[in-house]
Amino acid sequence: MTKTESRPLDVIVAGEANPDLILTSVPPLELDQEKLARDMYLVLGGSSAITAHNLARLGARTGFVGVVGDDFLGRFIEEKLRAAGVDLSFLRKLPRAKTGLTVWHTRGRRRAGVTFLGAIARLRAAHVPSRYLARARHLHVGAYFLLENLQPELPRLFRRARRLGLTTSLDCNYDPREQWDSGLHQTLALTDVFFPNEDEARRITGLRDLRAAARQLARHARIVVVKRGARGVLVAAGDRLFRVPAVKTRVVETTGAGDSFNAGFLARFVRGASLEECAAAGVRAGARAVTRVGGTTAFEE
Ligand SMILES: Nc1ncnc2c1ncn2[C@@H]1O[C@H](COP(=O)(O)OP(=O)(O)O)[C@@H](O)[C@H]1O
Ligand SMILES: [Mg+2]
After folding, report:
1. How many other C-beta atoms can be found within 10 angstroms of the C-beta atom of residue 183?
2. Which of 36, 40, 35, 8 lies closest to 24 in space, CA to CA?
3. Would you state the pLDDT for residue 140?
4. How many other CB atoms are found less than 10 A from the CB of residue 213?
5. C-beta of residue 163 within 8 angstroms of C-beta of residue 190
6. What average pLDDT does the structure give for the chain?
7. Alpha-carbon gap, residue 239 to 236, rounded angstroms
8. What is the pLDDT of residues 122-169, one digit of tens each?
9. For a pocket test of ligand 1, which of 248, 259, 261 has the largest count of ligand atoms closer than 8 A to its C-beta?
10. What is the DSSP string of 257-287?
11. For the chain, which residues make up each domain, given as ranges?
């Protein structure tokens, strides 16, 4: 394999970036009625952008490729990622597109979200040039199911990345269309680490039994890490299947826990750490994320 130690970037993250508007203690909404939230937070969102931000804050040299609109929310994203030290040479601003936005309504530990995709879905494989990939060691893509233009091109992008000596990882996140396929398996076959949560792993495989679901996914991707909230993770790779418990912590808000887990895991993975070490770093990062509102707040300090 190509030697990649001397490359200037550890990880390129390609995917969606959008602000998350988080409204807390929201009662159930009803048409024709107005309710009050207790508080609101406008934070960096998007699985991919959160992973990129937190990777950089954990010391990995990170670049982000994504598409935003040339608007206030796009500038907000740029500022947040730049402040974390993320390389933005290939962040695209499309003049006539709107930056995507997710509004989360939270109540206790539960949350409901609605996303306007805007520029998010416009990301294409061609936005990730080979000359940029050749500067990094690993390519991560988050929120597979939201990246509608990228989905059919992703097998080729991952193949291109591997040819250039990079390893690959993928987080699918929730499928708002609830189809749970969209050609995912073609990409999994070219994926080194796949990061679904337990609900997603069950829906993709159609299997209730989580161990069976993890094993089944590990027949496609090389390593599968199933995230289980306060229960930690289940890791499947080849014949191996093991659990890593979560780190006990005071939970404030869980948006971005999974994306932060990815960051913790990958920060070690690119340094050649063992699977156990990667997963342990992942659960530490996930636990850190839930101590503050939003996916990156705890990593800004
Ligand atoms: N309540 C919690 N206490 C401690 N760690 C947590 C908690 N919730 C999440 N985490 C950590 O973050 C990881 C990812 O969170 P999870 O909710 O499973 O992912 P996602 O956000 O993708 O649904 C978990 O595997 C765990 O390590
Ligand atoms: Mg997730």
Report:
1. 12
2. 40
3. 98
4. 24
5. no
6. 96
7. 7
8. 999 999 999 999 999 999 999 999 999 999 999 999 999 999 999 999
9. 261
10. HHHHHHHHHHHHHTTT--HHHHHHHHHHHHH
11. 11-16+47-97+122-299
The number of the ligand 1 atom at minimal distance from the alpha carbon of 248 is 4
Q: Which spans in the chain are helix H? A: 47-57, 72-83, 130-133, 154-163, 184-188, 198-205, 210-217, 257-269, 275-289
Tens-place pLDDT, residues 170-222: 999 999 999 998 889 999 999 999 999 999 999 999 999 999 999 999 999 99
284: closest CA among 271, 298, 270, 274? Answer: 298
**Ligand 1 site, residue 229, Cβ cutoff 6 A:** yes
Provide the β-strand partners of residue 40.
23
Global model pTM greater than 0.90: yes
CA distance 180 to 174: 8
Ligand 1 near 279 CB (within 6 A): no
Locate 20 and state its tokens. Answer: 């998350």
CATH class of 11-16+47-97+122-299: alpha beta
pLDDT (average), residues 50-77: 97
